[in-house]
Amino acid sequence: MSLSTPSLTTRRIPTQRLTVQVAECVDREHAEPVVLIHGNVSSSVFWHDTMRDLPERYRPIAPDLRGFGSTDPLPVDATRGVRDYSDDLAALFDALGVERPHLVGWSLGGGIALQFLRDRPSAVRSLTLVNPVSPYGFGGTRDHDGTLVSPDGAGSGGGAANPDFVQRLARGDRSEESPLSPRQVLATCYVKPPLRPDREDEYVESMLTTRTGDDHYPGDSTPSEAWPGIAPGTRGVLNCLAPTHFRIDDLHTVTPRPPVLWVRGEDDVIVSDTSLFDLAHLGAIGAVPGWDGTPAQPMIAQTRHVLDLYAKAGGRVREVSVPDAGHAVHIERREEFAAALLETLAEGA
Fold first, then answer.
1. CB within 8 Å of 153: residues ≥ 6 apart
2. What is the CATH number of domain 8-347?
3. 255/253 Cα distance (integer angstroms)
4. Is the confidence at residue 2, as pLDDT, over 70?
5. Which of 86, 109, 273, 287 has the most CB within a 10 Å radius?
6. pLDDT at 199
7. What global pTM score does this model have?
Protein backbone atom coordinates (compact mmCIF):
# COMPACT_ATOMS: atom_id res chain seq x y z
CA MET A 1 0.00 0.00 0.00
CA SER A 2 1.37 3.41 -0.98
CA LEU A 3 1.15 5.96 1.80
CA SER A 4 0.82 9.66 1.00
CA THR A 5 2.77 12.28 2.94
CA PRO A 6 0.91 15.58 2.75
CA SER A 7 1.91 18.55 4.88
CA LEU A 8 -0.01 19.19 8.08
CA THR A 9 -0.97 22.54 9.53
CA THR A 10 -2.68 23.64 12.74
CA ARG A 11 -4.97 26.56 13.45
CA ARG A 12 -7.34 27.75 16.16
CA ILE A 13 -11.01 27.87 15.16
CA PRO A 14 -13.41 30.07 17.18
CA THR A 15 -16.83 28.43 17.57
CA GLN A 16 -20.00 29.34 19.43
CA ARG A 17 -18.84 27.20 22.37
CA LEU A 18 -15.04 27.51 22.57
CA THR A 19 -11.90 27.95 20.47
CA VAL A 20 -10.63 24.64 19.11
CA GLN A 21 -7.13 23.76 17.95
CA VAL A 22 -7.37 21.75 14.73
CA ALA A 23 -4.78 19.83 12.72
CA GLU A 24 -5.48 19.60 8.99
CA CYS A 25 -3.85 18.57 5.73
CA VAL A 26 -2.84 21.44 3.48
CA ASP A 27 -5.04 22.16 0.42
CA ARG A 28 -7.83 19.68 1.24
CA GLU A 29 -10.63 22.19 2.01
CA HIS A 30 -13.00 20.79 -0.63
CA ALA A 31 -12.33 17.08 -0.08
CA GLU A 32 -14.53 14.61 1.82
CA PRO A 33 -14.20 15.33 5.58
CA VAL A 34 -12.82 12.71 7.94
CA VAL A 35 -12.81 13.81 11.59
CA LEU A 36 -10.39 11.99 13.89
CA ILE A 37 -11.19 12.18 17.61
CA HIS A 38 -8.38 11.40 20.04
CA GLY A 39 -8.54 9.52 23.31
CA ASN A 40 -8.01 10.36 26.96
CA VAL A 41 -4.62 11.75 28.06
CA SER A 42 -3.56 12.56 24.50
CA SER A 43 -4.31 15.06 21.72
CA SER A 44 -4.68 15.27 17.95
CA VAL A 45 -0.94 14.53 17.67
CA PHE A 46 -1.77 10.82 17.98
CA TRP A 47 -3.59 11.05 14.62
CA HIS A 48 -0.90 12.79 12.57
CA ASP A 49 0.34 9.64 10.82
CA THR A 50 -3.20 8.52 10.01
CA MET A 51 -3.89 11.94 8.53
CA ARG A 52 -0.85 11.64 6.28
CA ASP A 53 -2.01 8.20 5.14
CA LEU A 54 -5.34 9.38 3.72
CA PRO A 55 -5.45 9.99 -0.05
CA GLU A 56 -6.32 13.35 -1.56
CA ARG A 57 -10.04 12.65 -1.90
CA TYR A 58 -10.30 12.97 1.91
CA ARG A 59 -9.94 15.99 4.18
CA PRO A 60 -8.64 14.81 7.56
CA ILE A 61 -9.53 17.07 10.49
CA ALA A 62 -8.16 16.28 13.95
CA PRO A 63 -9.32 18.56 16.77
CA ASP A 64 -7.95 18.75 20.28
CA LEU A 65 -10.76 18.09 22.73
CA ARG A 66 -11.46 20.61 25.49
CA GLY A 67 -8.83 20.31 28.19
CA PHE A 68 -6.32 18.63 25.87
CA GLY A 69 -3.74 19.97 23.45
CA SER A 70 -4.25 23.67 22.68
CA THR A 71 -8.05 23.82 22.75
CA ASP A 72 -9.67 26.00 25.41
CA PRO A 73 -9.64 24.18 28.76
CA LEU A 74 -13.32 24.58 29.55
CA PRO A 75 -14.56 22.42 32.44
CA VAL A 76 -16.34 19.13 31.73
CA ASP A 77 -19.87 18.70 33.05
CA ALA A 78 -19.86 14.95 33.60
CA THR A 79 -23.61 14.80 34.27
CA ARG A 80 -24.02 15.21 30.49
CA GLY A 81 -21.88 12.15 29.79
CA VAL A 82 -19.60 13.00 26.87
CA ARG A 83 -22.01 15.52 25.34
CA ASP A 84 -19.78 18.48 26.22
CA TYR A 85 -17.33 16.96 23.75
CA SER A 86 -19.82 15.87 21.08
CA ASP A 87 -21.56 19.26 21.18
CA ASP A 88 -18.16 20.92 20.83
CA LEU A 89 -17.66 18.87 17.65
CA ALA A 90 -21.00 19.98 16.26
CA ALA A 91 -20.06 23.62 16.89
CA LEU A 92 -16.69 23.06 15.19
CA PHE A 93 -18.38 21.56 12.13
CA ASP A 94 -20.66 24.60 11.91
CA ALA A 95 -17.66 26.94 12.10
CA LEU A 96 -15.80 24.99 9.41
CA GLY A 97 -18.82 24.49 7.17
CA VAL A 98 -18.37 20.70 7.42
CA GLU A 99 -21.40 18.55 6.60
CA ARG A 100 -21.78 14.78 7.10
CA PRO A 101 -18.19 13.90 8.02
CA HIS A 102 -16.83 10.43 8.53
CA LEU A 103 -16.10 10.04 12.25
CA VAL A 104 -13.10 8.12 13.58
CA GLY A 105 -12.86 7.83 17.37
CA TRP A 106 -10.15 6.25 19.50
CA SER A 107 -10.81 5.19 23.12
CA LEU A 108 -12.59 8.15 24.78
CA GLY A 109 -12.96 9.51 21.23
CA GLY A 110 -14.89 6.35 20.34
CA GLY A 111 -17.42 7.12 23.04
CA ILE A 112 -17.73 10.69 21.76
CA ALA A 113 -18.24 9.42 18.21
CA LEU A 114 -20.93 7.00 19.42
CA GLN A 115 -22.69 9.83 21.25
CA PHE A 116 -22.51 12.06 18.17
CA LEU A 117 -24.05 9.30 16.05
CA ARG A 118 -26.72 8.64 18.66
CA ASP A 119 -27.73 12.31 18.76
CA ARG A 120 -27.19 13.24 15.08
CA PRO A 121 -27.36 10.09 12.92
CA SER A 122 -28.13 11.97 9.69
CA ALA A 123 -24.92 14.00 10.15
CA VAL A 124 -22.54 11.00 9.98
CA ARG A 125 -21.29 9.28 6.78
CA SER A 126 -19.48 6.45 8.52
CA LEU A 127 -18.22 5.60 12.00
CA THR A 128 -14.88 3.99 12.80
CA LEU A 129 -14.22 2.95 16.39
CA VAL A 130 -10.64 2.26 17.49
CA ASN A 131 -10.45 0.40 20.81
CA PRO A 132 -13.45 2.45 21.96
CA VAL A 133 -14.66 2.83 25.50
CA SER A 134 -17.62 0.55 26.13
CA PRO A 135 -21.04 2.00 25.24
CA TYR A 136 -21.79 1.49 28.95
CA GLY A 137 -18.87 3.59 30.13
CA PHE A 138 -15.71 2.63 31.97
CA GLY A 139 -15.96 0.63 35.19
CA GLY A 140 -18.85 -0.17 37.47
CA THR A 141 -20.83 -2.63 35.31
CA ARG A 142 -20.94 -6.40 35.31
CA ASP A 143 -22.41 -8.01 32.17
CA HIS A 144 -22.97 -7.54 28.43
CA ASP A 145 -26.10 -5.48 29.16
CA GLY A 146 -24.11 -3.04 31.27
CA THR A 147 -25.88 -3.75 34.57
CA LEU A 148 -24.57 -1.53 37.36
CA VAL A 149 -22.63 -3.32 40.09
CA SER A 150 -23.88 -0.68 42.54
CA PRO A 151 -26.58 1.97 41.97
CA ASP A 152 -24.05 4.75 42.62
CA GLY A 153 -21.60 3.45 39.98
CA ALA A 154 -19.00 2.39 42.56
CA GLY A 155 -15.66 1.53 41.03
CA SER A 156 -15.82 4.15 38.29
CA GLY A 157 -15.23 7.87 37.89
CA GLY A 158 -12.53 10.29 38.95
CA GLY A 159 -11.50 8.37 42.04
CA ALA A 160 -10.46 5.39 39.91
CA ALA A 161 -7.38 7.18 38.55
CA ASN A 162 -3.98 6.46 40.03
CA PRO A 163 -3.01 9.61 41.96
CA ASP A 164 0.72 9.13 41.25
CA PHE A 165 0.07 9.12 37.50
CA VAL A 166 -2.10 12.23 37.81
CA GLN A 167 0.63 14.04 39.78
CA ARG A 168 3.25 13.11 37.20
CA LEU A 169 1.06 14.46 34.42
CA ALA A 170 0.52 17.69 36.33
CA ARG A 171 4.21 18.31 36.88
CA GLY A 172 5.23 17.41 33.33
CA ASP A 173 7.21 14.26 34.10
CA ARG A 174 9.11 13.15 30.96
CA SER A 175 11.23 10.51 32.66
CA GLU A 176 11.17 6.72 32.67
CA GLU A 177 11.86 6.45 36.37
CA SER A 178 8.48 5.00 37.34
CA PRO A 179 5.97 2.58 35.79
CA LEU A 180 3.47 5.40 36.34
CA SER A 181 5.35 8.08 34.40
CA PRO A 182 3.49 9.13 31.23
CA ARG A 183 6.35 7.79 29.10
CA GLN A 184 6.16 4.37 30.71
CA VAL A 185 2.37 4.30 30.52
CA LEU A 186 2.67 5.05 26.81
CA ALA A 187 5.25 2.28 26.36
CA THR A 188 3.44 -0.39 28.39
CA CYS A 189 -0.26 0.44 28.05
CA TYR A 190 -0.88 2.52 24.93
CA VAL A 191 1.19 0.16 22.76
CA LYS A 192 2.14 -3.46 23.25
CA PRO A 193 5.73 -3.92 24.43
CA PRO A 194 8.43 -4.12 23.22
CA LEU A 195 7.32 -1.60 20.59
CA ARG A 196 8.52 1.95 21.20
CA PRO A 197 6.80 4.37 18.78
CA ASP A 198 8.97 6.37 16.39
CA ARG A 199 7.31 9.56 17.60
CA GLU A 200 7.51 8.69 21.28
CA ASP A 201 8.73 12.11 22.41
CA GLU A 202 5.89 13.83 20.51
CA TYR A 203 3.33 11.50 22.06
CA VAL A 204 4.68 12.13 25.56
CA GLU A 205 4.46 15.89 25.00
CA SER A 206 0.90 15.38 23.77
CA MET A 207 -0.01 13.45 26.92
CA LEU A 208 1.44 16.23 29.06
CA THR A 209 -0.99 18.77 27.56
CA THR A 210 -3.75 17.09 29.59
CA ARG A 211 -5.28 19.53 32.07
CA THR A 212 -5.60 17.99 35.51
CA GLY A 213 -7.98 18.62 38.38
CA ASP A 214 -11.61 18.18 39.32
CA ASP A 215 -12.90 19.91 36.18
CA HIS A 216 -10.60 17.99 33.84
CA TYR A 217 -8.59 14.79 34.35
CA PRO A 218 -9.45 12.77 36.31
CA GLY A 219 -12.38 14.69 37.86
CA ASP A 220 -13.90 14.64 41.31
CA SER A 221 -15.28 11.64 43.20
CA THR A 222 -17.64 10.75 46.01
CA PRO A 223 -17.34 8.11 48.74
CA SER A 224 -19.33 4.90 48.44
CA GLU A 225 -20.36 2.21 50.88
CA ALA A 226 -19.81 -0.34 48.12
CA TRP A 227 -16.37 -1.74 47.26
CA PRO A 228 -13.91 -0.19 46.41
CA GLY A 229 -15.25 2.80 48.35
CA ILE A 230 -15.43 5.42 45.60
CA ALA A 231 -18.21 6.48 43.23
CA PRO A 232 -18.40 8.99 40.39
CA GLY A 233 -18.55 12.72 40.92
CA THR A 234 -20.13 15.24 38.58
CA ARG A 235 -17.10 16.89 36.98
CA GLY A 236 -14.19 15.92 34.79
CA VAL A 237 -13.14 13.34 32.23
CA LEU A 238 -13.42 10.01 34.03
CA ASN A 239 -16.80 10.93 35.46
CA CYS A 240 -18.21 11.68 32.03
CA LEU A 241 -17.45 8.02 31.22
CA ALA A 242 -19.00 6.66 34.43
CA PRO A 243 -21.95 4.34 33.71
CA THR A 244 -24.22 6.58 35.77
CA HIS A 245 -23.64 9.40 33.26
CA PHE A 246 -22.76 7.72 29.95
CA ARG A 247 -24.80 4.92 28.43
CA ILE A 248 -25.62 4.18 24.81
CA ASP A 249 -27.83 1.09 24.73
CA ASP A 250 -30.22 2.15 21.97
CA LEU A 251 -27.85 2.82 19.08
CA HIS A 252 -29.82 0.33 16.98
CA THR A 253 -32.84 2.66 17.02
CA VAL A 254 -31.18 5.51 15.09
CA THR A 255 -31.95 6.23 11.45
CA PRO A 256 -30.19 6.38 9.14
CA ARG A 257 -27.59 3.81 10.14
CA PRO A 258 -24.20 4.59 8.58
CA PRO A 259 -21.60 1.81 8.27
CA VAL A 260 -19.57 1.07 11.39
CA LEU A 261 -16.02 -0.28 11.58
CA TRP A 262 -14.72 -1.55 14.92
CA VAL A 263 -10.94 -1.99 15.04
CA ARG A 264 -9.37 -3.38 18.17
CA GLY A 265 -5.95 -4.58 19.25
CA GLU A 266 -6.25 -8.05 20.72
CA ASP A 267 -3.67 -7.25 23.41
CA ASP A 268 -5.15 -3.95 24.56
CA VAL A 269 -4.77 -3.69 28.35
CA ILE A 270 -6.88 -0.53 28.70
CA VAL A 271 -10.12 -1.44 26.93
CA SER A 272 -10.43 -5.15 27.65
CA ASP A 273 -12.54 -7.71 29.47
CA THR A 274 -9.57 -7.88 31.88
CA SER A 275 -8.53 -4.23 31.84
CA LEU A 276 -5.59 -3.19 33.98
CA PHE A 277 -7.46 0.11 34.48
CA ASP A 278 -10.63 -1.56 35.84
CA LEU A 279 -10.59 -1.61 39.64
CA ALA A 280 -12.66 -4.81 39.68
CA HIS A 281 -10.08 -6.70 37.64
CA LEU A 282 -7.26 -5.20 39.70
CA GLY A 283 -9.07 -6.38 42.81
CA ALA A 284 -9.39 -9.89 41.39
CA ILE A 285 -5.62 -10.12 40.82
CA GLY A 286 -4.82 -8.71 44.26
CA ALA A 287 -3.64 -5.26 43.15
CA VAL A 288 -6.50 -3.45 44.95
CA PRO A 289 -7.18 -4.61 48.52
CA GLY A 290 -10.44 -5.84 49.97
CA TRP A 291 -11.90 -7.21 46.75
CA ASP A 292 -15.46 -8.43 47.37
CA GLY A 293 -15.84 -10.56 44.24
CA THR A 294 -17.11 -7.78 41.99
CA PRO A 295 -16.60 -9.07 38.43
CA ALA A 296 -14.47 -7.24 35.90
CA GLN A 297 -16.33 -5.19 33.31
CA PRO A 298 -16.67 -7.19 30.06
CA MET A 299 -15.86 -4.19 27.86
CA ILE A 300 -15.37 -6.08 24.59
CA ALA A 301 -18.52 -8.16 25.10
CA GLN A 302 -20.50 -4.98 25.80
CA THR A 303 -19.37 -3.23 22.64
CA ARG A 304 -20.05 -6.36 20.58
CA HIS A 305 -23.55 -6.63 22.08
CA VAL A 306 -24.47 -3.04 21.17
CA LEU A 307 -23.03 -3.36 17.65
CA ASP A 308 -24.75 -6.73 17.12
CA LEU A 309 -28.08 -5.04 17.86
CA TYR A 310 -27.17 -2.30 15.40
CA ALA A 311 -26.41 -4.91 12.72
CA LYS A 312 -29.63 -6.83 13.38
CA ALA A 313 -31.54 -3.57 12.90
CA GLY A 314 -30.02 -3.21 9.43
CA GLY A 315 -26.73 -1.38 10.05
CA ARG A 316 -23.50 -2.56 8.45
CA VAL A 317 -20.90 -3.50 11.07
CA ARG A 318 -17.43 -4.90 10.53
CA GLU A 319 -15.07 -5.96 13.31
CA VAL A 320 -11.34 -6.06 12.63
CA SER A 321 -9.37 -7.75 15.39
CA VAL A 322 -5.63 -7.08 15.13
CA PRO A 323 -3.37 -9.66 16.80
CA ASP A 324 -0.23 -8.61 18.66
CA ALA A 325 -1.44 -5.00 18.97
CA GLY A 326 -2.46 -2.91 21.95
CA HIS A 327 -4.54 0.19 22.60
CA ALA A 328 -3.08 2.49 19.93
CA VAL A 329 -3.53 0.06 17.05
CA HIS A 330 -3.60 2.94 14.53
CA ILE A 331 0.00 3.70 15.55
CA GLU A 332 1.21 0.14 16.09
CA ARG A 333 -0.19 -1.29 12.84
CA ARG A 334 -0.35 1.80 10.69
CA GLU A 335 -0.77 0.26 7.24
CA GLU A 336 -3.30 -2.37 8.35
CA PHE A 337 -5.35 0.29 10.09
CA ALA A 338 -5.26 2.63 7.10
CA ALA A 339 -6.43 -0.15 4.79
CA ALA A 340 -9.38 -1.03 7.02
CA LEU A 341 -10.31 2.63 7.45
CA LEU A 342 -10.22 3.35 3.71
CA GLU A 343 -12.58 0.44 3.04
CA THR A 344 -15.13 1.86 5.45
CA LEU A 345 -14.73 5.42 4.16
CA ALA A 346 -15.57 4.10 0.70
CA GLU A 347 -18.71 2.38 2.07
CA GLY A 348 -19.90 5.64 3.57
CA ALA A 349 -19.32 7.81 0.50
1. 139, 140, 231, 232, 242, 243, 244
2. 3.40.50.1820
3. 7
4. no
5. 109
6. 96
7. 0.97
